[in-house]
Amino acid sequence: MFQRWNLRQYITYLLITLVFLSSWTDVNGIYAQLPQIILTQPESWKLGAYLALITNLGNIGPLSLVLFKCLCRQRTINPVPINYIVIVIGMLACFLMIFFWSYTTTIGNEKHSTALLTLAFFLSLLDCTSSISFADYMHRFQKEFTSAIFLGESLISILPSLLAIAQGNGQIHCIQSINNTNTTEVVYETARFSVSIYFLCLFLLLTISFIAFILLQWTSIAQSSYQIKSDISNESNESVKKPLTHLSYVFLLLGCAYTSSVLFGMILSISTYVLMPYGHRIFYLGTIISPWMLTLIWIFGMIKPLLSKRYLLISIILGSLVFAFDLFVSFRSPCPPWVDTTKGNVLILFVWLSTYIFLGYPRLVIANYVRVHSTNGMFWYGVNVQLGALTGSVIAYLLIETFGLFHERKACEQMIC
Predict the structure, then answer these.
(1) Residues 161, 291: contact at Cβ < 8 Å?
(2) Which residue in 32, 199, 368, 389 has the fewest CB atoms around it within 10 Å?
(3) Using CA atoms, how far apart are residues 24 and 30, in angstroms rounded to an integer?
(4) What is the distance between the alpha carbons of residues 292 and 349, in angstroms, rounded to a whole number?
């Protein structure tokens, strides 16, 4: 498709990708920074559970959009002002994080990271909303630009991870205990720069995203990339050639919700229980490499944007099978199959990364299907992405916190399985 593009269309594609940096980069950045933050905050590792709960409360935003869409069917939602609000308040929250992330207050005789959690709530509220508003915004561009969503989706995980690597975040050493108990202790390496500098870098990324959005809206760069009536009629003709029944449309959206529940809800929550039993190095590699699988999915989408529904189903089934193995390993933690062996290390990395590919690629294909089927297709696609992420997070929270079905293996912990 790129052979037909001029320079402005390439620039437009890049700008759209940069706009998507303001969606979830900030919240993902907080999670990537947790190994440093917990060293000084009173909640310690429980801070992750607090953040997960706060992130789910952010779904108030998308719920409001859905209610408006259902109650005011005669009026259309303009995503542009919503996107401005999302990016600007996200920038402001990240800027405040630079100075107040470590601020605590005493509530009920216990100290809490009130500033961090409050700002994280506003960020999650905006990011949850952006999952819908950004997807809906894409409908004003030609269909070839839809894949920019997924390139941006990969970058919002990759860039915070690269910043964390540059910082030296999460690097540990295992040393022998000095009390002759034949145990090892975890020692964290000193970070190359502070948490405040890290949040400053995130603020700069959001500023770049804001500038990109202004260029798309207030310059003529994107004019040749907007949909015109002939493009809309062409998409309609495509939908006639490859018609989607209402039932197929619903099933595709449910498939979007299911794959999103695994990728953005379940798999992130159980990563410690799947990867850590095989060692901190495997855990580190798995969490660093997995965002790059989203980039690989984007490349697949550029080569093959559509699949027949039969192969789409096969991919989702294969993804479900490898995810079932991930779940099996997490239930068997801290002593899963082939633990402390090279065979086990290679297998779990392969299975872990395959889950992203087999379930991530169908999401891209589904987006291309629903966009052609309906003018509201991308709006409801975004709704189902967020619905799936919420559902997966709740299920994972129940399995981990409420029922206590998973048991983690701590870094440097020596076990006989």
Answers:
(1) yes
(2) 368
(3) 10
(4) 13
The helix-helix angle for 377-397 and 114-137 (nearest 10°) equals: 150
Distance between CA atoms of 249 and 416, rounded to whole angstroms? Answer: 51
The residue ranges of the chain whose pLDDT is under 70 are 1-3, 45, 170, 177-182, 229-243
Chain centroid, CA 393 distance in Å: 12
Predicted confidence at residue 182, as pLDDT, reads 64
The predicted structure's pLDDT at residue 242:
56
Tell me what pLDDT residue 239 has: 47
Which residue type does 354 have? S
For residues 355 and 295, the answer to whether their CB atoms sit within 8 Å is no
Give the CA dihedral 136, 139, 141, 146, nearest 10 degrees. 80
Question: What's phi and psi for 339, nearest 5 deg?
Answer: -70, 145
- The answer to whether 134 touches 61, Cβ cutoff 8 Å, is no
Residue 45 pLDDT:
66
Question: One-letter amino acid identity for 303?
Answer: I
The pLDDT, as a whole number, for residue 240 is: 42
126-153 in b/e form (b: 16+ CB < 10 A) is bbbbbbbbbbbbbbebbbbbbbbbbbbb
Rounded Cα distance, 415 and 148, in Å: 45
User: What separation in angstroms does the CA of 285 have from each of 189, 278, 347?
Assistant: 17, 11, 13
| pLDDT recorded at residue 369 | 92
| pLDDT in the model for residue 71 | 84
pLDDT for the residue 12: 94
